[in-house]
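Quick one, T. Sequence first:
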Amino acid sequence: MGCPGRTMLWHRYTLAVPVYVLAAVTEGLTVYQAVQHFEKMGRGLLLPISSPNVLKTYLLALTVGAAVSVWQLVKERRHHLDKRDKKLKK
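Structure tokens:
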């Protein structure tokens, strides 16, 4: 049991980024469709605020959260792959 190979590390840290982006976009589209559905229905739940506004706020939070997460994933990828390259050069 040694360190994982360069190819395995590259796949792990490179493929995580587009998979996460795809998942975030899919969730965003689902929420967007739900906003349209709730706007057609009017007030959905018995709350002092309307359901479409809650979903729009969630959509904004999802966008910001996904952007920060992708930034962190890219940063982590760079860190692990650069560290591995420096080890191999020694």
